[in-house]
Specification:
The chain is mostly beta strands. The protein has helices at residues 40-43, 115-119; strands at 3-15, 21-29, 32-38, 47-54, 68-75, 89-90, 100-106, 111-113, 156-158, 162-174, 179-183, 193-197. It is extended, with a radius of gyration of 23 Å.
Amino acid sequence: MSYILGKKTEMSQIFDEKGRVVPVTWIKAGPCFVLQLKTDKKDNYSAVQVGFEKKEKNIKKTEKNKEYKHIREFRVENEKLKDFKGGEKIDVSIFKEGDKVKVSGISKAKGFQGVVKRWGFHGSSKTHGTKHTVRKPGSIGATDPARVFKGKKMAGRTGGRRITSSGLKVFKIDKEKNLIAIKGAVPGRRGTLLEIKG
């Protein structure tokens, strides 16, 4: 299983072999370092812990795991833990152009929004005596139960949730600059921490 941490830098476009424009997202991925191997016997689950982006300030020897800004774990079967070693470096070379990946991250937080922006409601008509109700949700319940059902699409906080986009294609890799171009859009704004799984 291929896994790496990265930060979203920008969206751009690249021309493919046939001269067609392809929208891509550039991600500065890695290098990450293996900090710890978790096993079923010791931790009751098997996983690999990796660190990304070292802190600039001096760290005590007793706090080695705190020398990285971002520490994440990804699950691995107990048999495949042998493929990883403590201190091992993980970079973009673990992926190849054309690989399908999953990208997880926190989406853009947009604050409290109405139903038109949050759920795509069309709103009321703008003519025939409509006044102050163009962007309102309209009726939210029936008279018989005399309550609003759970899960009703209403106004509320939008974005700021963990989202996973799957089936994305690795379009280009720049090993020297630790950059990876993924076809299409990925969650979050510029600088968002992303988890890329192969």
